[in-house]
Each structure stands twice: as C-alpha cells, then as structure tokens.
Amino acid sequence: MINADEIAGILKQQIEGFKTDLHQDEVGTVIEVGANLARVYGLRGVRASELVEFADGMLGVALNLEEDNVGVVIMGSDKDIKEGDKVRRTGRIASVPVGEALLGRVVNPLGQPIDGKGDIKTNRYRTIENTAPSVVERQGVKQPLQTGIRAIDALIPIGKGQRELIIGDRSTGKTAIAIDTIINQKGKNVFCIYVAIGQKNSTVAALAKQLEQKGALEYTTIVAVGPSEAAALRWIAPFAGAAMGEELMAAGKDVLIVFDDLTKHAQSYREMALLLRRPPGREAYPGDVFYLHSRLLERSAKLSDELGGGSMTALPVIETQAGDFAAYIPTNVISITDGQIYLTPQLFFQGIRPAVDVGLSVSRVGGSAQTKAMKSVAGQLKLELAQYRDLAAFAKLASDLDKGTQMQLLRGEKLTELLKQAQYQPQAMEDQVVLLYGATNGFVNDVPTARLQEWARGFIGFLHEKYAAIPQAIASSNQLSDETKKQIEVALTEFNTSF
C-alpha cells in the first residue's frame, strides 16, 4: 500500500533541506585604468570604502561614488587589469585581521605577513575606519607612559591615551625617540604598533632586527608599506594600524602606536585625490586632509572604566622642510594633538641628542601624566632650564658677566649635558628621578661638564649595587619621601668623594 502521508513527509523534508548553488553578484565593468586607479561602471549598490574584486583577484576600495561610475583605488599593481574587465562587489568594508596573533610580526596594510614566518592564525577582523570613542566613553589622561628619555619624561611628559606629535626636519632623530619609547615598554604590559609609511624596506628590516635584539619585537606589530607600493596601501596603513590597536584597547589593554610619518601619508592621499580629480586646496592637498588625520588620531583615547579602561597612545611623526612648522600639514596635526616634541637640526649638530627644543616643545596634559616623584624634580629642572635659555641669549651679547650669572650659565650647561642620552638606552623612571634630583640640588657642581655622562653612568651603577633600596622604594611608591631624599643625598655624597 502507498502511504500518501509518508510520501508527503519525505517530500516536505527534502524541500526544506534543498540548497541552491545560485548566488547573485553585482558586477561592474572597468572603463578606465591607470596609476593604480580604476573607473568602474555598473556597481550601483556599492558602498563607500567597500572592497571590490577584479578579475585577476586584486582587491580595490571604492572611494569616489559618482553619478555614472565608481572611482576605485587598487591595492597593488594594476598591470593585469584592463578596460572591459569585470569587477565584483564583495559586500565587505575594508578590514584587517586583528588580535594578539599579530604581535611579533611584520605585516602589510592588509594584515598579510611579509616577514616569512608563516600565516597569522586569527579569525578576528575589524574595519579599518571606525568611529572614535565619544566624550562619555573616555576618561582623563592621568597615567604616565614612560619613554625612558630623561628630557621627555621630565619636561614633556606623555600619558596613556595622549596624542603627542614628534616634529622636526629630516635626520633629527624623530624615529629614534619613537623606537626608544617602544623598547622602554618591555615588561610594562604595553603593546606597541609601529606603522612605517613609505619607508625604505632596508630601514624597516634594520628596525625589526634592532627591536628583536632588544627583546621588544615580541610585544610589537610592525605595519610596513614601501615607497614603491600603491598609494592606496600607504593611505590605509595608519588606519589599519589603528584598527589593530583598537582591538587590544577594547580588551582593556594599553597600546602605543607610532605613525611614521604622517607627512608621507598626506602626500599619498593627495596623490590619490588628484588622480580621482577631487578639487585641490592649499598646497594642492584635498579639502578633507585635516579630517583625514583628525579622524585617525581621535581614535587614540583612555577608555572609561565601564569599557575596561584600555588606552591607545599615539605618537604621530611629521617631517618639516627647513624648520617650517607653519606649513599646512604640520599646523594641521599640531592642532589635533595634545602637544608636540620639537627636534631641531641646530641642537642635533651641536651634539645635544635627543635634539629636543625644550622651549618650543609642550605637553598639553602636563604634570597629570607624571608620577609624584618625577613631578617633584621636574619643576625645578624646568625653571632652571628656562632661566638658562634667557641668560644664554643675553650672554652672547655681553662681554663681562657677574659671578652669579656665570654660575647660572654653568648650571644650565650641566643640566643640558645631563639630558643628553644615547640611542637604544632608555632609562627607568626611578633612575631618572635620582639623577635629576642630584643635578638640581647642586651635587654635580664640582663635576666637569665633559665627564657628566660618565658620572651619571657610574652613579646609577653604584646606586643599584650599594643602595638598591632607594630605586626600589621610588618605583614601588612613585613618590619621593623626605626619608628617600636623605638616602639619595648620602649616596650622592659617598659616590662624589670617590669619583
């Protein structure tokens, strides 16, 4: 007997489980291609910043949505793309892989490894363009982020969640400050991202090797894009780095991100904008170049405790031409950031390195990003250096100076000498405090200026050997108690007698 109910049940089951292999793709046609840009006709539903795929598998980003075509920037070489090729929408907004799996790796702006260490095992992705945390989602910058550089930690302090611009001419040590800061985060549970925009591949390779030797690569991701690569890749590099940092910040971690440098970034954006025939503005940059950098840097923040209290601190780098800080891009970025570290060739060639111009540099967060120990010695240091700068300017004009002025000039010279620091040698906060305490309280007055660096090295070694409790007390309490001050003075007196 045929059971109709049974047959109906089987048919119903098969209909429910039926899957069709058909899927609908929106496809357009290339009508023009060149200079890593393509104009595509027919992608009616495409969204801004959506990834599209060309016939040869190359990806592009839809940037200009015009009435009759779409301007697509190609993420690589356009040599295999020709007029009439089909272009398919992917439905994905440009995104990069994120997570701790990227630490210790060198990747390109698409998150693909370029260090030959195999694939990156992560299934998490984040769009490169994300909205910056709102006012409610942030909290004030109040935790210090130590750079390990005396001149910066004492005079231009940086806090977690701050944006501090490093600005100066070519070859004045901008990258050196950023790299020393990364090296100094070892053991401090701060993850670092270094974005190299348009830098030579040999430079990036040497930098990665240096970080590896110092044990800093294990908590650092390097996002690198060379000068010969497509302008589109140079354009998305800092946004990709920021997305990688945001993932860690959202998980309650502290992140340091270096954009080296945003001058090349603005130039690559200008190149793309002019080729897309967007109207040029000042210095031929498009009108939204300020918005380009503001929406990037505003993503750095110290999140509220409700959101986990994570932070992302940004160190953007800007290269000036012949010290012209009033140019378009430098003034733009200065107005976005919370302070700047000025580096000048004059100081650099005088042998004052890092070549920080203390008079022109500023941190708009100020002492709230310093430990109490550092704050107690930094105030006196700032005052003495300011007086020294004023006197040094007049001393050039005057032939004979009174004894008090000569003493003040000598102290200023000694403090300037003590703020010099070799590259790749960041110093712990407690060691900096002890040195600066000695310098501002007259313990270096009898030390010849030429031997001050030797004195500083010798004293720190002596301190850790014989008076190890002093730096330990400062590091644990972040304060400089009266008892600790007395112990420092005893140690300084004992060391100076033997020195």
Tags for this model:
alpha/beta; eight-stranded mixed beta sheet; six-stranded antiparallel β-barrel; 15 helices; 38% helix; 17% strand; elongated
Summarize the structure.
By secondary structure, the chain is an alpha/beta fold. It has helices at 4-16, 150-155, 174-183, 201-213, 231-250, 262-275, 289-297, 328-336, 345-349, 372-395, 403-418, 429-440, 452-466, 469-477, 482-498; strands at residues 27-34, 37-41, 50-54, 59-65, 70-74, 86-93, 95-97, 106-107, 125-127, 165-168, 190-197, 220-225, 254-260, 311-319, 339-343, 362-363.
Give an account of the 3D structure.
This protein is α/β, with parallel strands linked by helices. Helix content is 38%, strand content 17%. It has 15 helices and 16 strands. It has helices at residues 4-16, 150-155, 174-183, 201-213, 231-250, 262-275, 289-297, 328-336, 345-349, 372-395, 403-418, 429-440, 452-466, 469-477, 482-498; strands at residues 27-34, 37-41, 50-54, 59-65, 70-74, 86-93, 95-97, 106-107, 125-127, 165-168, 190-197, 220-225, 254-260, 311-319, 339-343, 362-363. Strands 8-12-11-13-14-10-15-16 form an eight-stranded mixed β-sheet, with helices on both faces. Strand 3 and strand 4 form a beta hairpin. The longest helix is centred in the last third of the chain and has 24 residues, at 372-395. The protein is elongated. The termini are far apart. 45% of the residues are buried.
Give the count of helical stretches.
15
Low-confidence stretches: none
State the end-to-end distance. 112 Å
Number of strands: 16
The main pleated sheet reads as: 8 strands, mixed
Rg calculated over all Cα atoms: 28 Å
